[in-house]
Amino acid sequence: MAKPIIGVTPLYDTEQGRLWMRPNYLHAIEESGGVPLVLPLSSDEEDIAALTKLCDGFLFTGGPDVHPALFNEETLRFCGSIDVQRDRFEILLLNQAVQADKPVLGICRGIQLMNVALGGSLYQDIPAQVSGLPVAHYQKPPYDVAVHGITIEKESPLYGILHKTKMLVNSMHHQAVKELAPPLLCGASSADGLAECLYMPGRRFFMGVQWHPEYLFEPDSDSEDLFRAFLSAAGK
């Protein structure tokens, strides 16, 4: 049986005008039985349709902030760097992947982009806009160390994969899901009430996580189980 091809959204260096990729994402896909394919930042809908047909699943990676205009807000002073070209490409790609029911996994920016693309909104900066427990959402290196806990909903596909209601995760984000997109449900949350996992019911695999499982990936780990479930859905 052929290995599933996983389209990986690229990171873009706006200063030097070049695409790049963290090897952790590619390693996790390869070790889970897939072939990673780093995608171009195209704005051509026919090209994106061809990529949707070619790939068996898609990984939406971390990166800069989603432009607040996409969820009808003005850019606040504590919003970080944005990439309009990447926003446009990923929204077009996500919509086509949804229409084709291709398996999708979003990580960090990925979960935020998924929520915005489907009609939700974001906190532009957690410290400035979220009160309550000071959860360590933006940790300092090393990134392969878990820093805070999450609670997993038993009805969620994440629980179906990991068979647990509590786990520890790493965390490297200053934005977070605010208003949930209508097609999505929350599968896990942190102690301050922020969404750590979103999913779309009735799909082969459509899930976003706020942490970085690619940094925690190792044999017999929760991260390996998550990636293998994603690759298994893409291989069907």
Automatic annotation (TrEMBL):
Gene3D superfamilies for this protein: 3.40.50.880
Molecular function in Gene Ontology: hydrolase activity
Keyword Acetylation: no
Metal-binding is among the record's keywords: no
Transmembrane feature ranges: none
Record key words, sorted: Hydrolase
Higher taxonomy: Bacteria, Bacillati, Bacillota, Clostridia, Eubacteriales
InterPro entries: Class_I_gatase-like, Peptidase_C26, PuuD-like
Name of the protein in its database record: Gamma-glutamyl-gamma-aminobutyrate hydrolase family protein
Pfam families: Peptidase_C26
CDD domains: GATase1_2 (cd01745)
